[in-house]
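Tokens help. Our protein:
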Amino acid sequence: MERYLQAPVNAQEILALRAGDFVYITGVIYTARDAAHKRMQETLAAGKELPMELRENIIYYMGPSPAREGRPIGSAGPTTASRMDKYTPALLDLGLKGMIGKGRRSREVKEAIVRNHAVYFAAIGGAGALLSKSIRKSEVIAYDDLGTEAIRRLEVEDFPVIVVIDSEGTDLYEKVAAGQQSDE
């Protein structure tokens, strides 16, 4: 099914999404990769506030290439999500409602997705230049010293993703793999 989602997200809309849905996100999302996640964990451990509100927001696991002249961002393809798995349950418990990346997630992340009624989206790997066309504005809001791994606030319009793990824990990768095995 094709759906349109406004970010930050409405919890009821997240609950309506199903694994396999094609979703177009418009609004504000944030980027964070490995180094930024580690820094966020350290910030929380020190009892300090994170540089952005997590509640009802989406984090895109992406580190862009430099922007071409006249563009807000360079190639903006997804990073392998499992690299953030050790940090993700704690962020979901703080209200994060969605993540965008590529690849499978751990059992702990799936459990945290279900527990927090969140969702995991996949963006198409290798299509970073195409994905960047949906990004209208990009600004570094934290950890500038991390370069491409700094946290960015993105304004996106019809950013294309696919629901991989929905709020009920249905995993599209597992469904596809099971379907392929049963056809053999």
About this structure: The helical segments are 11-16, 34-45, 88-93, 107-115, 128-132, 172-182. The chain has a mean pLDDT of 92. Residues 34-45 form the longest helix (12 residues).
